[in-house]
Design a protein that fits this description.
This protein has about 210 residues and is of the alpha/beta class. About 45% of the residues lie in helices and about 20% in strands. The chain has seven helices and seven strands. Strands 1, 2, 3, 4, 5, 6 and 7 form a seven-stranded mixed beta sheet that branches. A hairpin with a 4-residue loop joins strand 5 and strand 6. Helix 3 packs across helix 7. The longest helix has 26 residues. The protein is globular and about 45 Å long.
């Protein structure tokens, strides 16, 4: 009985360790990744003094988050991460984004476009509620949204859902294109970043 219990503990420990290995997530395309969407709680919007921060927090953040899922062929996160599909649930990031402080969103400091560190991302993930799911989670943590630079900056973050340990976080920037609405304008930056991951970055992360 004791030997069986010991074997079960060993097997359980082995599975846990495996789930926390970045190499397994990047090199084995059969390893599932759960997509949580976009976290805007650290975002700063620059160069847009006429923007309505309350409307952005209450409505626009959720709109961008949903767009990535609803138009998945255009914003193909699964393909970028070499998966046929990614299970997803935006409710966790939507709830977080709704609690963002509108008074902290607008910024006149250009340095806010590049102000976060890997430590900041780990702190954010440590307080992230990923539900009862296990395995690897994926979230895009927005840092800066600059109309002056015409670019978006964010941290692409893979983490162990159960332990909330960051497995990998990489800062990326996406140039903005055209868009007649707030949602579509900023969504172009996300597309550029997703395309970069698909074309070159994933291969670099895998080799490293």
């Amino acid at each position: 009985m004791k030997s069986q219990l010991l074997l079960l503990m060993v097997l359980t420990f082995g599975i846990t360790v495996k789930a926390q290995t970045l190499s397994e997530v990047l090199n084995n395309t059969e390893t599932p990744i759960f997509y949580y969407g976009i976290d805007f709680t650290k975002a700063r919007l620059m160069g847009d003094p006429n923007a309505n921060p309350r409307d952005i927090v209450e409505r626009q953040f959720a709109g961008i988050n949903a767009l990535i899922i609803n138009e998945y062929k255009k914003y193909d996160v699964a393909k970028a991460f070499r998966r046929t599909e990614l299970a997803n649930d935006l409710s966790y990031t939507d709830k977080r984004n709704e609690k963002a402080d509108p008074d902290q969103l607008l910024s006149t400091n250009s340095d806010d476009f590049n102000r976060l560190s890997e430590k900041d991302i780990q702190t954010l993930i440590s307080g992230f509620n990923g539900g009862a799911k296990t395995g690897a989670g994926l979230v895009f943590v927005v840092e800066g949204m600059s109309k002056t630079k015409k670019a978006l900056s964010l941290w692409v973050t893979l983490f162990d859902i159960k332990t909330r340990k960051v497995l990998m976080t990489k800062r990326m920037e996406g140039a903005l294109g055209s868009g007649f609405s707030f949602r579509n304008y900023w969504a172009t930056g996300f597309k550029k970043i997703i395309d970069q991951i698909e074309k070159s970055e994933y291969k670099k992360w895998k080799s490293n």
